[in-house]
Amino acid sequence: SNKEPLLIVLSSPSPIFLRSYQNPRRVSFRAASMGTLVGHVIPGFAFLVFGLWHLYNHIKLHCQRPKSYAPPTWFPAPKVRHLELYIILFGGSTYLVTELFVGPSSHHHPLDPTDWSIPTNHLHNFQHSTMTLAFIVHAAFALHFDRVRPRAGQMMSLLLGSMVFGVELLMFNIHSNGHVGLEWQYHWLLQAVISVSLATTLLGIGYPRSFAVGFARSVSVVFQGVWFKVLGVFVYSPRFIPKGCSLQNHEGFLVVPCDGHASLHRAKSLANLQFAWSLVVVAIFSVWFYLHLAKKYPEVPEYECLGKVDGHVEDELPESPKKKVEEKDVKSGGFLPMGKWLQPMDLEM
Question: Where do the TM regions start and end (predicted)?
């Protein structure tokens, strides 16, 4: 009949309309994968928290030390220096194991037991795990760089950060090919935000002291978190599905088919409006946040660093007190420099 739901495949050069889902059925939500409400909201919360943490530290660092400002890829916490990296390592490892061994429906096994190949219905699990693995690799190397202090550690951290956003962009591009219609539109807009994160991270290599680069990168990560949440709520929550569209289950995957061309066009237009409104709100908040912190953290006196060699910029992250004590002991041979305290005395006979 003419009332059968229509799906538009936008991955092809010309739009192709397919009639499908002759027996659609409503689905109940389970936090099992990225294709659910919770599966998008939780990563969105993580991006939002880390983005705000970076935005706060970038603004504070630039306000207090504008002359020596060099935006790093991570920031030490007040009491636990590597807390940010530990959270990424632990949270990423937990999510990776959950995605590979809990998410798959075939007895918690990511591979086909018969020939050890990747089943088609588990490809999305490996895509999500690959993105998570990239974050784990970056955090692990950042932790190592902070301990050994290589000369080009900051540049290598930025390159690894670019790798993270590059892998994320690639996986979402492949992941979006499995989506159609309204889902594709939301994921395509998400790729636009990830592209900004990738571009600003690469620009950080060429412009290591640019506040605009660090600020824009942090804002883009915040916006990723916001858009993840918007995507999860307005695509995978039945009460927020646009008029003329419905959330359905097709072969174990959640899809949002629309009744016709007009309904699909309206739904995609609403998604574009949501993206624009979210961008404006994030921009207003970011500028207000900057003005607020600029008043709270005035510039502090600085001394020019004489430790620059061949124009290279060393890492701006402060060293841990424990490492400073260890280096001091090594230089002094483990003994107190007694010569500085004992002065020669003339003994009278």
Answer: 37-56, 85-106, 126-145, 157-176, 188-207, 219-237, 275-293
